[in-house]
Amino acid sequence: MIDFDDDPKWTAYALGELDAAERAECDQILETNPDARAYVASLKEAIGTIETQLAAQPAPALDELQRKRIEKAAQTPKRSKSRWLFGAGAAAAGIAVIVLASSQTSSEDRVAGDREQALRVGRLDREKGQDLPMGSSSAISTSDTTIALAEAERKLNFHARNVETVTTANPQVDSVQLAVVTKNVTQPGPAGGVGGVKTGEAGPNTEAYARIDDNQFYTTAKEPLSTFSIDVDTASYANLRRYLESGARPPKDAVRIEEMLNYFKYDYAAPTGTDPFSIATEVGPAPWNPKHQVMRVSLATAMIDNAQVPARNLVFLIDTSGSMQMANKLPLVKQSLTMLTESLREQDQISIVTYAGSAGLVLPPTSGHNKGAILDALGRLEAGGSTNGGAGIQLAYATALRTMKKGGINRVILCSDGDMNVGITSEGDLTRLIEKEREKGVFLTVLGYGMGNLKDATMEKLADRGNGNYAYIDSAFEARKVLVKQAGATLVTVAKDVKLQLEFNPTMVAGHRLIGYENRVLAHADFNNDKKDAGEIGAGHAVTALYEIVPAGLPVPTDGKVDNLKYQTQPTPGASNELLTVKIRYKEPNGSQSKLLSRVVDGESVRKDLQSTSTDFRWATAIAGFGMLLRESPYRGTLTWQQVSGLAVGARGQDVDGYRIQAIKLIDRASKLPPSAP
User: Fold this and answer.
1) Residues 11, 5: Cα–Cα separation, whole Å
2) Could you tell me the pTM of the whole model?
């Protein structure tokens, strides 16, 4: 049995500091020892936590003396054998010890206190959910944590957005030294924006979002139907979290309420019959208008055990263009896919395609058993050049089709900021290409990275047309959630082309409004049209949709008055106690003909006060209110930030993963910020 804690070479391996022979020895052990793989994965997560938190800290500019010392240190030749000061017991038990030597190269360059600062130790206590910065890479307690080398990082400008790291050995200190050489690279501009400008200058924000106009109210007597496609994307929530943590409100069009709702776990019952998902509804008062009601419709699929996951044929399609140089782009992509790689099995296979000015196959189809080869290929990736996304997508699909696994998961995983500027750049051409390939059984997952030039609208549309999902990765914390914890929901499709159609009873409901899902609304005739594409749902996924309902007898808020219809029978209040009927159509993952499910919601089920509703109902209404306030929705009524916060705090529930407490902190942060620009 290997005693990992007493062998510091594993920490060196995780940092990529071993020579070729030592790394090959470790790779051989990793191929046959799952404990070793788990230990290294734990180390990498701890290292990623420190890197992410260091990247978030502001760094002062270097003075001339500091610059000379760093450049001199970077030129110091390495020793033949490094000595490691990484403490025993690190990482596997939740503790990571990181030591960095100062960049002293002579007694003349020595500055009082440098060595003491450089030898500071950071301890990461991985207890979940305590005072965690929401975008940090792991759920750790910061009250008990000293971030490794915080003072040395500030002194040497070890800032992930502004530096290139060079690993050397310091001849005066028995440790590994990270020397940094500053370069003129991009830096965050105001409100999270990034521009290609020199350090210290504010750059333009060229992020692109599709316009969202809030769904309006419809009078039930004239428009009893509401039809839409489900959406299980979560990108909007992670993206707005990034904005709020940077000290600014997100753009209004970046706030998609359905993606905020579907980011969280809910205590929905698992399906019990032959259908792939359960269906539930709940009705209670609307917090923003006590005279109105909110109805929640939920779908939930069964979780899938890792042993039951079909063999995976995954093609990592990675944007390595010049726009991906920042630390929260390609370096975070590599960290994210490393996490996914650690969970692979022998029957799984990975290919890596990259694209910049041209596209290339970096790693041919490789078994998940050979993790060393996959990780080495990821480690070699560098950013540079223009962005020929179309060529990359074509090569990725061709690679996936050549190695199709019948009955397995065949999927392209696109990692990019969405800024495609060479080759097939038309959104229409790209989506048509992806639609054609999805019919062959290869689906698409889109992971967005970075800030400043994020092309959110393009990436969302590509995922929608590729029978996949879209997530925004703002940290290693989010990468682990999407690619490890929720791998079943992300990769294993259990139903496709899922559509909902609700028919409201005019004797009980005067008017109705779908909250969110603005870009998922369908024509009513599309519900029965099996040629019409709709959303997919994966194993362990839950879908939540909310409607605001105007009870019969109350006026329906509309922008303009519509004359009563002449030839239609006017409803008689109380003629039926049915509130509405929910209909759902879906196809099997490989099917072409849809199946129909139907549920009736009885008026007797309506809750009279919020406290009698479920915790999940109150949480969902709080998050919807959060989104409406961020969007400055015209339908937010009397809602205040204080109300949203109080509702969320009261509906936190067990919150095992700490996601809800993070959202409560975001609500508090948003309440103190000025409104975003129109």
Assistant:
1) 9
2) 0.72
